[in-house]
Amino acid sequence: MRREKLWVLYAEEPSRAREQLVGGLLRKGLRADKADSLKELTDALLLSNFDAIVLDPKLPGGDALRWIAARRRRGDLTPILLLV
């Protein structure tokens, strides 16, 4: 049985570092999409089921830690890696 590629949503403001990291994920055979704000992140999660999220806690659009807490209260257990 062939496994689907791991699908990561990378949420950070546009930067050269973000492009390099997303490129690295793609080169390793993962699927990767980008979000520039908490709103884009939330919208993307309404449309797709990602396997993991890489999140900059300073992402524009609100308090990322409160956003995570609200997702967890609603039962969303998608793994989240915080960039610090």
Architecture overview:
There is one protein chain. This protein is an alpha/beta fold and 84 residues long. It has one domain (7-82): Rossmann fold (3-Layer(aba) Sandwich). It contains three helices and four strands; from the N terminus they run E-H-E-H-E-H-E. The protein has a four-stranded parallel β-sheet. Helix 1 (16-27) links the parallel strand 1 and strand 2. The N and C termini lie far apart (37 Å). The model has no long low-confidence stretch (mean pLDDT 94).
Known CATH architecture: 3-Layer(aba) Sandwich
What is the share of helical residues? 25-40%
Going by helix content, strand content and strand pairing, the class is alpha/beta
The CATH topology name reads Rossmann fold
Beta-strand segment tally: 4
Distance linking N and C termini = 37 Å
